[in-house]
Amino acid sequence: MAKSRFEYVRQFESHETLLPETYIVVRIDGKKFHEFSKHYNFEKPNDERALKLMNASAKNVVLKYKNDVVLAFGESDEYSFILKKDTSLFKRRRDKLSSLFVSLFTANYVALWSKFFPGTALDYKHLPFFDSRCVCYPNLSTIKDYLCWRYVDTHINNLYNTVFWQLIIKCGLTPQESEQKLCGTLSSDKQEILFTDCGINYNDEPNMFKKGSLVTNKGEVCHIDVVKQIDVLFEGF
Ligand code: ATP
Ligand code: ATP
Ligand code: MG
Ligand code: MG
Ligand code: MG
Ligand code: MG
Ligand code: MG
User: Fold this and answer.
1) Atom of ligand 1 nearest to the CA of 161
2) Going from the N-terminus, what domains does the chain have, and what CATH number goes with each?
3) Which residues surround ligand 4, an ion (CB under 5 A)?
4) Is 18 within 8 Å of 85 (Cβ atoms)?
5) Which residue, 97, 140, 158, 162, is the most exposed by fewest CB within 10 angstroms?
């Protein structure tokens, strides 16, 4: 094809290739989902439909790129897709990986919305959209720590949110009072408050809430103790 005299402007484009032989994590996170969840009346602290919609969207992304993905892990409005260290997907270009993963995820989230929220139409003034970043991890030990970090974060956030909301729902505390009561408490204190004040045993909470969701590269969704299983999860990768 003949080139126009304008063609030279391509030279202004730059492409970052991610370091070879490193595990790539593409992490996406919902934009202002605090507000989004309020607008669509998500149940607090965990709306099961919303989590299942996140999982179904992630599963479709994983299946599309199953040869390049080790696994994916999600909690709340975020998902991390872990790619094999030798992947050559999109020639390891940062922009391509980040933008194609997040737009494929968002497209699935919108397309699957009505399956998980039947009767609630998406309002064009409150559409779901996500940010995205790529991070490289240089070895097995750091990528395992990355996954454990997200898993432990799920636990810390969920325990806090569960007690915070149950104190409001069951004990009639205001959000300010609930926050004050939890200020400076340890994990064990929170479990104790939940049990004695709200009559709830944290152990009986659903695994999806406590442990987050893991999608294997075969597209299976499970809710397991990631820290305990970390070596098994990366066997062969
Ligand atoms: P940002 O745009 O900076 O990410 P954000 O409002 O999305 O802002 P996050 O730190 O990402 O803030 O937190 C996501 C928020 O979305 C949670 O704090 C919670 O209020 C809400 N949320 C996400 N998923 C659910 C769910 N399944 N059930 C109930 N609330 C949810
Ligand atoms: P890549 O993933 O590399 O971008 P691509 O198939 O999207 O591959 P492009 O160079 O972006 O390649 O070209 C987009 C193609 O999509 C066009 O060549 C055309 O075949 C098709 N296409 C896009 N918009 C329209 C349209 N409005 N009507 C008909 N065909 C279209
Ligand atoms: Mg954020
Ligand atoms: Mg968010
Ligand atoms: Mg988030
Ligand atoms: Mg193109
Ligand atoms: Mg194109």
Assistant:
1) 18
2) 18-154+207-233 (3.30.70.3000)
3) 29-30, 33, 77
4) no
5) 140
Structure tokens, 113: 């919305």
Nearest CA to 104 out of 83, 81, 82, 125 is that of 81
Choice from 34, 43, 46, 130 to test ligand 1 binding pocket (greatest atom count within 8 A of CB)? 34
pLDDT beyond 90 at 2: no
Residue among 27, 29, 32, 33 to mutate when testing ligand 1 (max atoms within 8 A of CB): 33
Residue 157 CA to ligand 4 center (angstroms) comes to 13
Distance, CA of 54 to CA of 200 (rounded, Å): 26
Cα torsion for 68, 231, 157, 49, to the nearest 10°? 50
Backbone angles phi, psi at 124, to 5 degrees: -65, -15
Q: Give residues with Cβ within 8 angstroms of 71, minimum separation 6.
A: 62, 82, 147, 214, 215, 216, 217, 233
Of 132, 127, 76, 82, which Cα lies nearest the Cα of 104? 132
Name the residue at shortest CA distance from atom 21 of ligand 1: 34
3-class DSSP assignment, residue 146: helix
In tens, the pLDDT along 8-19 reads: 999 999 999 999
* Ligand 1 binding pocket includes 39 (Cβ within 6 Å): no
Sign of the dihedral through C-alpha 166, 168, 173, 179:
positive
